[in-house]
Amino acid sequence: MAYVEFHASVPxxxxxxxxxxxxxxxxxxxxxxxxxxxxxxxxxxxxxxxDGTVDCPEHGKSADDLISDAYGWIRxxxxxxxxxxxxxxxxxxxS
Length: 95
Description:
The protein is an alpha+beta fold. The protein has one domain (2-90). Helix content is 29%, strand content 14%. The chain is built from three helices and three strands; from the N terminus they run E-E-E-H-H-H. The chain has helices at residues 34-39, 63-76, 83-90; strands at residues 2-5, 14-18, 25-28. The chain has a three-stranded antiparallel sheet.
């Protein structure tokens, strides 16, 4: 399990922290990553026509709107633990 923490050490992003290993964390600093992180927290980008980083032609949502929606989802769920978020964390070499 892992959770998101907004922290002063990452002023333009947030940390993903492991519930089990405190030193196992990853800084997310680009908005391009927000949809992927949010999907690991249960968010769905509009429909199956986009992953949240490109426009959704089906519903006329821009990538900017989807990235903003993903960021809002992450903010709303800060501190909650998600098993799939630990999987996301596991894809990166972290310290």
